[in-house]
Amino acid sequence: MSPVNRVRDMVNVHVTAALPIRAQALPFADRVEVRFGKAFPVVLIIDRAALGPLVEAIQAGQAELDAAKNREAEG
What we know:
single chain
């Protein structure tokens, strides 16, 4: 299959402040379910072992955004 006809292997979900986000523990599966949206939600299932790295990645992204904003304010 040529690269032009390839199916994307990534799903993009734009999370905004207005998007409802709900998290629910699934103790029987040792996972957390995070739902984005209401009528047709996108669901992210996270294994317990992946929670820490996910939180760290989000915090690192937030720190990068904050640093960029600070550089912009200074410059």
